[in-house]
Amino acid sequence: xxxxxxxxxxxxxxxxxxxxxxxxxxxxxxxxxxxxxxxxxxxxxxxxxxxxxxxxxxxxxxxxxxxxxxxxxxxxxxxxxxxxxxxxxxxxxxxxxxxxxxxxxxxxxxxxxxxxxxxxxxxxxxxxxxxxxxxxxxxxxxxxxxxxxxxxxxxxxxxxxxxxxxxxxxxxxxxxxxxxxxxxxxxxxxxxxxxxxxxxxxxxxxxxxxxxxxxxxxxxxxxxxxxxxxxxxxxxxxxxxxxxxxxxxxxxxxxxxxxxxxxxxxxxxxxxxxxxxxxxxxxxxxxxxxxxxxxxxxxxxxxxxxxxxxxxxxxxxxxxxxxxxxxxxxxxxxxxxxxxxxxxxxxxxxxxxxxxxxxxxxxxxxxxxxxxxxxxxxxxxxxxxxxxxxxxxxxxxxxxxxxxxxxxxxxxxxxxxxxxxxxxxxxxxxxxxxxxxxxxxxxxxxxxxxxxxxxxxxxxxxxxxxxxxxxxxxxxxxxxxxxxxxxxxxxxxxxxxxxxxxxxxxxxxxxxxxxxxxxxxxxxxxxxxxxxxxxxxxxxxxxxxxxxxxxxxxxxxxxxxxxxxxxxxxxxxxxxxxxxxxxxxxxxxxxxxxxxxxxxxxxxxxxxxxxxxxxxxxxxxxxxxxxxxxxxxx
Length: 634
Fold this sequence. Notes:
alpha+beta, 4 domains, Nuclear Transport Factor 2, Chain: A, six-stranded mixed beta sheet, Pept_cys_AS, disulfide bond, zymogen, 27 strands
């Protein structure tokens, strides 16, 4: 059974991410989503047959749209069309999936046959052809009306076969405008015409307040000041933290006026100078504490100093807060403010800050999804790391390109020690691991993985721990690609060709591709050869305990938001075949019954477990056992 994808990426990209805690758009080209559509149709066919039906099985399936929701598992809301040659049905279904219990079921389904009227309009999926007609109509209207509207999405589409095809489309444009258009297309004469168009918009009175999102960057600033003002007027010995924010409006006055109601509750922090600036992230609202609602008015005038003039008025004493429920929107806002303070984030403009907040908001939803879908035994925590305001593309500068899984082919195989392997071992306890370093935004992880291994080998064989130069490899390795990635297996050969490595002190790290300044007279460490190590994790542990840290490649999927604990993502999230980051295994152990690897990263000591990544040991998690190597020092 093959699913035909009929919604183009152009459309998918136009949608937002949904309300907090609700459904968000899913990619219908994702094989996992396609698999759930096939699962539903197969279940539908089985039920029909079990009920004595003799109709042909449905096999032709078209996915129209998909949404997903993080619960204790995942809900997938699918809108699809299926046909068995005689009957076509449109179905809305919800499939519940909980991977760690192998649960997959159809929770709800509503299907109805598509009736065809001779010569009439039929519902049509929003595919690339429909998008082409929508953009044609938009361009024509912009020319006719002398406007510059932008297309947000195609709300609905239907087609009618005439001497050609009529496309009846409902379009959502910017400025909350909706247009109904008809486009006639006759391919054999290369004719395309806009034959009908009418638009409406939700209008508001000029100068009147209108509702806006609490994520607005100006609302955030007013909100931050309002919290301090509310605590300043409070005689409560405990600091008040925000519980919710509601009824947010914006109005053009002599400047811009922002109003909202802010519910605040008693926290466990004392209301004094030491707690000033702390948010609900640091001072959570305690159950059983008192709560108050304040009405907040903020006037923003960019030409005055200060720019914001905020007043706070208590309006309702709400009594006891039994179970404080922060809105996710507010929680994310406070996390963002806390994130900025913790990591000293300063943005170049208000527009840039607004952009970063939206990225942060999206990333926190992804972090929550990773958190909720971790495998049993995981103790990992995911959240607002220093990379939380970066797009996926920006974050990839801190990893690298996908590794060639054949990169270790031809290497000499390491001899695996026989006998008893220690239950736990860590080379940090034996002075064979240097401090955690920081590669910055240069994709030089492979160089740090390589030098980390050689530092360990040299310390074990020569009795001296020396911090070695990654910049030498970035600049002088002619096989690898510096800040654009590389492989330790290749780097070992280049080190032998160069004649060795200088120290970090002699050849300092710059985090950029630069001219090679290698000085053979400054070489402090040399290697003789290199080996590849078994992918059997028991044998890896045995080799490490006897010989030293292991250079490895790993899929960095879960690392952008990793804050600590033992990470154990599912393989369909973190493919073992898509390695993109070089790191160093320095030890292993067992924590509360869960075996783990201690992995040294190169993103600084303010990431993860003081610069380290703890990963579940024994399941080939994220491909960490795929490309294991070491230098050899005689």
